Structure formats: C-alpha cells, structure tokens
Amino acid sequence: MDIKIAIVQKPPVLLDLDATIGRVVESIEEAAGLGAKLIMFPEAYLPGYPTWIWRLRPGGDMALGNTIHARLLENSVSLVDGDLDRICEAAAKAGVVVVIGMHERDSCYSGTTLYNTVVVVGTDGSILNRHRKLMPTNPERMVWGAGDGSGLRVVDTPVGRIGCLICWESYMPLARFALYAQDIDIYIAPTWDCGETWMASMNHIAREGGCWVLTTATAIQGSDIPASFPERDSLFSADEWINPGDAAVIKPFGGTVAGPMHQEKGTLYAEIDLEAARNARKALDVSGHYNRPDIFQLDVDRTAKLPVKFKE
C-alpha cells in the first residue's frame, strides 16, 4: 500500500506557541490538500528547538538564560490543559496522522519541569502516543527533564505502525531494539542533528530495523528569529543558517528516496510502500529470526514513573 507522506521543516515562531500552532495548522491543511496522509514536524517544534543553549556562555549568561527559559515555560505545551487541541482538530478535519515534537510542561505535578516530547495524533484527533526523550543531550539537560519508558511504543495507524525516537535517542541501541520488536513499519526521528553523519545513521537504522525512516530538523536562519527574542542580535546573525533542516526519507534496508532537503524552508513529499518494510526483514529481522533470545534478553519497563503517590 502506497502512502503519501509530508515532512515539514519550516521555521516556527520561536518562543511563541500560539503563532507556531497557527503555522502547524496551515501546514497540515496544505499537505493534506496535496494528498499527504502522514505529516511530520521536527523536534521541539512547539515553540521551537532551544538552539540558544549551545550559544550561551556557561555561567556567564545565566541571567539571559533564565529570561529566555521563563519565556519558554510560558509558551510550552500542557497536554492536559488542551494546548494541542487546535492541532488535534486539524488532524481530525483532514483525516491525517500528525507527528510533532514539543516542549511539554508537566502541569500535573511540578508545574514547571519541561520535557522534550513527541506525540502521534491519529486521524480522529486523539493522541495515540506520547514519548518523552529519555536522555537530554549535553546542555539540553538545563532545559528538559529525563523521560520514562512509557512512550516506547509502536502504535497502529491507518498509515502503518509508527514508532518515534527523538534525535540522539537514535544512538541508543536498546531503545531502537525496543521499537524494532513491535512490528514497526515507520521509524520517525525528529531531530536537531543534520548532515552526512546523521544521514548515514538513518540509513543504518533503516537497514537494521527493516523499516521506513523519516527524519527532519528545523530549517531556520538567524533572520527567522523574532525581534522579540531576548538579546537576539547578540546570539544570532541574520544571514546565518542555524540549521539546514535536511528532511529525508529512507527506504527499508537503506537508500535515500527523498531529500535531504538542505537549506530550504518548506515541505518534503514522498510516496512510501508499507509492504516494503516487511519484505525487507526477510533477510534480516533483528528482533525475529536474526535474534538470539537464548543469549541476549532485553527487559523494557514501560510503567509511568510518577514523582509522588497520594493516598487519601
């Protein structure tokens, strides 16, 4: 079965959740109008990847970092408060599956901790899965808490079985295997990484897992940073490419069929054949006939790790 997919790597309105959601809804309508049934957005797209953390001086820019983080917290996503409703409604109206990354605020317990989260929204507008990044990378740990295993799930959708890992989680072999062992068709990797090394990794995963791999970062220049961003001009140059995007589609067993879309603010489209994933695993099925469970065993704890339990 052939499915048309769309990978959106347009810039968000950094630190502005409402405006960025508006762009997401427009992109969903545009892609659905062109026949896409699966629409993917980058890592932390709502309201934009915290690229400033790689530019602040350790210890020297603490006040600026605190100011930016406060703005980020105000514009983060609370799933329980319905902050994703407009996107869910757009997905349901168009009858498409949407995969999107976000800064998710823990509004149930601490009220302030943020997580790097990706959700899969079904064709009826329901959230099919929420995965929080297991381990933030380097300075990301000043922004996000560590997620648990509750989102290490592959979910059924009308466009195939979908699993997601975020950015360098794709370098965690056991996390990858946890998805491979759930009959995955499409491995979705929203990211901030890009370039030849990342593409080589995505090809490796497509070969190793026998699945389609969709990946993208955000294509964004310094000129895309809003004027309202605190001390924008001291952190960014208007003409620089902060990230080239590099959206790509990799076929099962390896081989790029679309992209990488380099330094282009737009949407990458491709047709994928779901049967190709299962056919690719005839020769190599790392969680099936090419596995040795008598020697190697993996236990995955998918229970949610709650910070507190109240007894009345």
Helix tally equals: 7
Give the termini separation: 52 Å
At CATH level 2, the architecture is 4-Layer Sandwich
Characterize the biggest β-sheet.
7 strands, mixed
CATH class: Alpha Beta
Whole-angstrom Rg: 19 Å
* Extended strand count: 13
CATH fold field value: Nitrilase/N-carbamoyl-D-aminoacid amidohydrolase
Broad shape: globular
Fraction in helix: 10-25%
Which percent range describes the beta-strand content?
A: 25-35%
Q: Helix- and strand-based class?
A: alpha/beta
Mean pLDDT: 96
Give the gist of this structure.
The protein has 312 residues and is of the alpha/beta class.
Keywords:
312 residues; alpha/beta; Nitrilase/N-carbamoyl-D-aminoacid amidohydrolase; seven-stranded mixed β-sheet; six-stranded mixed β-sheet; 7 helices; globular
Q: What can you tell me about this protein's structure?
A:
The protein is an alpha/beta fold and 312 residues long. The chain is 23% helix and 25% strand. The chain contains 7 helices and 13 strands. Helix 1 packs parallel to helix 3. It is globular, with a radius of gyration of 19 Å. The mean pLDDT is 96.
How do the strands and helices of this protein lay out in sequence?
Blueprint: E1 2-8, H1 17-33, E2 38-40, H2 62-74, H3 85-94, E3 97-105, E4 114-121, E5 127-132, E6 155-157, E7 160-164, H4 173-180, E8 186-190, H5 195-209, E9 212-216, E10 219-221, H6 232-235, E11 241-250, E12 256-262, E13 267-273, H7 275-280
Helix pairs in contact: 1-3
